[in-house]
């Protein structure tokens, strides 16, 4: 049986691995791209995922409490790479999490303050928990009214993967999106369009009807993103080039 690992040892593992993998030039570029005040080691996403996989293989007996402790320890630092690695561990061991962890997970979203962490948490962790605990969908309307636009973005993205696969509750997504159409926040407008775009690949009629119904309120960004894969006739009906 593998030895239990504490959060300090976990962070030490990732710090060592990702420092070797990173580069100062890439760290500076990442920091500028994300407009972040955090410290960066300059590891790539594939390198981070490789380190996460190695860590999880070495510690197959991680518990729910371990996951939460590692994430909390990472978020207590000012390290982009450690936060990313912690989210990677949550994603890789998401089966250990349940609906009762969603309040804590959305608090991580609130503390993330960057799409780089919010989107990963929303799709790879929160979305997976909700997919396995459908009653948890009732939390999304609450999050959609949160004062933090990152939490509101998470409410939209939480169903991204299930909706993309042709499942999920599109009516719920449409209701939440409708309530945010008048927002000027880029990350909200982009999230609505992103989900609509993915849904349109399998269910274009749903997306076309939504955009047509809300044509006068939907932002240009949301419209262009959401209608990207609609048919020429549908795009023309929305006032877009075929």
Please tell me what the overall shape is.
globular
Structural class, judged by helices and strands? mainly alpha
Relative strand content: under 5%
Mean pLDDT: 97
CATH class bucket of the largest domain: Mainly Alpha
Largest sheet data: none
Question: Helix fraction?
Answer: 55-70%
Secondary-structure arrangement, i.e. CATH architecture of the largest domain: Alpha Horseshoe
Strand-and-helix sequence, N→C?
HHHHHHHHHHHHHHH
CATH topology label of the largest domain:
Leucine-rich Repeat Variant
Query: Cα distance, first to last residue?
Result: 60 Å
Number of domains: 2
The Rg value, from CA coordinates, equals 19 Å
List the helices and strands and how they pair.
Elements: H1 7-21, H2 24-33, H3 45-58, H4 64-75, H5 80-92, H6 102-112, H7 115-132, H8 139-143, H9 149-157, H10 160-164, H11 170-178, H12 186-200, H13 204-213, H14 220-226, H15 232-237
Helix pairs in contact: 1-3, 1-4, 3-5, 4-5, 5-7, 6-7, 7-9, 9-12, 12-13, 12-14
Structure description:
There is one protein chain. The protein is mostly helical. It has 2 domains: 1-96, Leucine-rich Repeat Variant; 100-242, Leucine-rich Repeat Variant (Alpha Horseshoe). It contains 15 helices and no strands. The longest helix is centred in the middle third of the chain and has 18 residues, at 115-132.
In summary, what is this structure?
The chain is mostly helical.
Comma- or semicolon-separated keywords:
242 residues; mainly alpha; Leucine-rich Repeat Variant; 2 domains; globular
């Amino acid at each position: 049986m593998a030895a239990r690992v504490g959060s300090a040892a976990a962070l030490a593992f990732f710090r060592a691995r990702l420092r070797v993998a990173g580069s100062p030039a890439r760290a500076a570029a990442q920091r500028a791209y994300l407009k972040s005040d955090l410290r960066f080691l300059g590891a790539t996403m594939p390198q981070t995922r490789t380190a996460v996989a190695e860590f999880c293989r070495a510690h197959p007996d991680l518990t729910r409490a371990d996951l939460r402790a590692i994430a909390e320890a990472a978020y207590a630092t000012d390290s982009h790479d450690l936060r990313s690695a912690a989210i990677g561990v949550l994603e890789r061991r998401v089966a250990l999490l349940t609906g009762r962890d969603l309040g804590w997970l959305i608090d991580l979203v609130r503390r993330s303050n960057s799409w780089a962490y919010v989107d990963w948490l929303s799709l790879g962790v929160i979305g997976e928990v909700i997919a396995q605990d459908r009653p948890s969908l009732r939390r999304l309307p609450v999050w959609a009214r949160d004062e933090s636009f990152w939490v509101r973005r998470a409410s939209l993205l939480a169903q991204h993967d299930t909706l993309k696969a042709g499942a999920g509750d599109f009516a719920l997504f449409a209701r939440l999106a409708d309530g945010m159409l008048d927002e000027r926040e880029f990350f909200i407008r982009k999230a609505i369009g992103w989900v609509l775009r993915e849904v349109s690949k399998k269910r274009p009629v749903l997306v076309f009807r939504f955009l047509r119904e809300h044509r006068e309120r939907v932002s240009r960004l949301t419209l262009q993103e959401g209608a990207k894969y609609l048919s020429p006739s549908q795009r023309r009906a929305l006032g877009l080039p075929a």
